[in-house]
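protien #1 (seq + structre)
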Amino acid sequence: MKVILANPRGFCAGVNMAIECLEEVIRIFGSNVYVYHEIVHNKYVVNRFTDQGVTFVNAVSEVPENSILVFSAHGVSPVIRNEARERKIRTIDATCPLVTKVHTEAIKYADAGYHIILIGHEGHDEVIGTMGEAPESITLIETPEEVAALKFPDGARLAFLTQTTLSVEEAGRVIRSLKEKYPSIESPPKEDICYATTNRQEAVSELVSRVDLVLVLGSQNSSNSKRLMEIGKTAGKPAFLIDGVEEVLPEWFEQAETVLITAGASAPEVVVQELIQFLEDQYQAEIENAIVRKESVRFPLPKELRAIQT
């Protein structure tokens, strides 16, 4: 068996920052801290912090007053920030700067009198946070069919934004439909889909024709990881999204001479290496590192945490 290992893969700069932020919070304050939702959408990462004593919550009301609360990489709405303030909770914001950029754009367009078409997945933490910035000025859509159902009048001041972890191809189809229906619709100066999402999708798209099977390391609630699996399936290849080697089924490899392995932007490298070790041990796999693009992006820790450090 041959294994092609996609590069880039795994942690992006925003995930690295969020995890480093939580690790530093634990170092400074101890492990009796809280995180609003999952710090990143990955079971391995969340379980690791849970084992250290961190508590993940779905409501600010679950956090005792005067506690430490970390906001996840996906961002939160102003309502959540206000709730934390009212409960005298000390907050540290680990929101990815690229998500913060979308929040800022939403505020800017809403304040300027635009109605915003947000392209994204209903219920995703990032979408909930972004819509919370201007709930009366944002309409969420996901498909070109939903564009067709929009009924804004001619001359309406419209702008569109996107969730950062979308499929580039699928988002492109929705954007083209929007521009066809509303030619004067405004868009941000720079696209919202993050560099890491784009790069990981590009790597799979470029390499998938060489393989018989695609394995994506990542959790089921990870939007960008699901997109990688979908690229494999769209190319006509069996593709599976797994948290780790324990989910692998032997029948996947019966007709697979070449396997592509990648990892979503919130999946740690340790789960990739465990899978590689398994394939080497069980199938004498030979590994090829395929570098499609190099990344050097890094985000600093939140300013409130840097102030504590100094």
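ok now protien #2
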Amino acid sequence: MSNNHSIEKKPPYGMIAILFIGAFVSILNETLLNVALPSIMTEFEVNATSVQWLSTGYMLINGILIPASAFLIQRFSDKKLFITAMTLFTLGTFLASIAPAFGVLLAARMIQASGSAIMMPLLMNVMLNAFPIEKRGAAMGTFGIVMITAPAIGPTLSGWIVEHYSWRMLFDIVLPIAALSLIISIFKLKDITGKREIKLDIFSIVLSSIGFGGLLYGFSSAGDDGWSDPWVYGTIIVGAIGLVSFIVRQLKLDVPMLEFRIYKYPMFALASAISIVIAMAMFSAMILMPIYIQTIRGISPMESGLLMLPGALIMGIMSPITGRLFDKYGAKVLAIIGLTITTGTTFFFSNISMDTAYSTLVILYTFRMFGMSMVMMPVMTNGLNQLPAANYPDGTAMNNTLQQVSGAIGSALLITIMNKRTESSATDIVQENIAAGNLDPSQVTGGAEQSIPQEILNLAMLNGINFTFFISTFIAAVALILAFFIKRVKSTSQQKEEQPAETKIEQVAAE
């Protein structure tokens, strides 16, 4: 195999299937544990801040390692890279399933994350190299099933398992699938993208870890500790300095770890901007709906997960369909339609009440996921199509890194907005009830949350959730405005067909 990123005549479907399985279980695992966190808190006797690190730590490791994926994909063969990543993920899963203490479980999650960080960039890079540009929409649509459906199914599956079995079953189910994928890859996987003899700049790794790690840690901690906490804004400042230093260094290197010069391609830059905004908006429903369903409405984790299942199924069904529509019509039309639906449904979520019908919530959430399914993969694929083949690893690494960072930032912002609005609403509602004579001032000692009646706390939290969805509506609207600037990236063959006859004659004569 040459070092050029050549496109094979016949796509390696068997190899792609193996990568799909590995990527699916690694992404599924990222959201699978969220519903189980209360059970883990009880078993290991840890507080909410500590147990949250099972999710935050996973995201941190991904954010630190994903920037290096472009180097790893180019430096090592597809087979060796996948086997190494899958071995780490399988080992982490096994340790998590037998973890005797919380520290062991946290370490196991970190090992899992170190393996899963490379899965998505590797799969996307193989897909880009395996299919010609005019067929990538359908291919990436199928890939979207993994990217979108896995995290959407996670809460439903987790809710059912936790309600009927131990949280350890979450890892016991993933373990045999991961092990089978690893065994098959050893015998069946091959290399198609080629590799280059490039050296890793160690200082870039250090700056990347400080930059992305600091930002992810700071923003992830803000939801619990608040923005005024010195540790929160201190790590964000250090992370920002590290990130700026990292970018400056990459621009000076001949062979950078992460190629920021790809932003000279306008459609890729626009696709990145839209993806960042969408990732932030997407977290509004993923984070706020379980809080509304379980905490305010008192509905079980199982039913909370089931609420999201139709949306997950719709996204899975629509992903390949959207891919084919992208091949035919391009990303702009799909993105505008999808983001209009997403913005509209997000606004409707900002008006939910204490007695909103469960069926209404299911329909709204399903329509929201339907809109999302028409946006992410078409926009990302259109942006990647503009890059030279040699920059595909850089593009996929950049996209995955930004999604992790923007997801962490988005969730932190939304949680903070919800908490602050809930606190102010609780104070206002208490004062209104005291003024109306419905509440004895002696019942509320100094406004302490523990002294406020649960009905008032629930109403205040509902106001906080509604307001946060309202803010998310504007975030989604920004992405909708950006979608109007999308232009379709055409293949080289399409461009040649559209050339004037005189130009074609000149090219033939020159040949």
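The chain has three domains: 12-191, 201-256, 262-511.
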